[in-house]
Amino acid sequence: MNRLYYEEGDVVTLKKGHPCGENLWKILRTGVDIKLACMGCDRTIWMARMDFEKRVRKIKEGEKMVAIVHHLPKDASNEGE
User: Fold this and answer.
1) What is the value of pTM for the model shown?
2) 11, 15, 18, 39, 59 from 63: Cα distances, Å
3) Residue 69: is it exposed, middle or buried by C-beta count within 10 angstroms (0-12/13-18/19+)?
4) Pfam family of this protein, just one (predicted)?
5) Confidence band (pLDDT; 50, 70, 90) for 4?
6) Closest by Cα among 70, 75, 77, 57 to 11
7) pLDDT by residue (tens digit) across 50-76?
8) Phi then psi dihedrals of residue 70, to 5 deg
9) H or E element: which one contains 54?
10) CB–CB of 40/20 below 8 Å?
11) Residue ranges of E strands in the chain
């Protein structure tokens, strides 16, 4: 499985939304565990990295949401050339 690329401040969607009805989450902290904040009600949750990588679906790039499998970090776009 390829490593997913995300960092603090990224906005993502998960497989299931939050009970408040929102499905946008902001990444507050990365590491072994991921800390996420719901963009609807501002509640925060901690999730194991493996669970997060299974559940994440899209990441916000500019003004649009992109499938996580198509997302590359800014500095990795020139690799392999």
Assistant:
1) 0.78
2) 11, 20, 22, 15, 10
3) exposed
4) DUF951
5) low
6) 57
7) 999 899 988 888 888 888 766 666 655
8) -100, 0
9) helix 49-55
10) yes
11) 11-14, 24-29, 33-38, 44-48, 56-61, 64-67
Q: What is the pLDDT of residue 73?
A: 61
Distance of CA 69 to the CA centre of its chain: 11
User: What are the angstrom distances between the C-alpha of 66 and each of 33, 42, 56, 75?
Assistant: 23, 23, 11, 17
Query: Under DSSP, is residue 70 helix (H, G, I), strand (E, B) or coil?
Result: helix
Q: Across the beta sheet with 11-14, what order do the strands follow? A: 44-48, 33-38, 24-29, 11-14, 56-61, 64-67
Is the pLDDT assigned to residue 21 strictly greater than 90? no
CA atoms within 13 A on the CB side of 47: 20
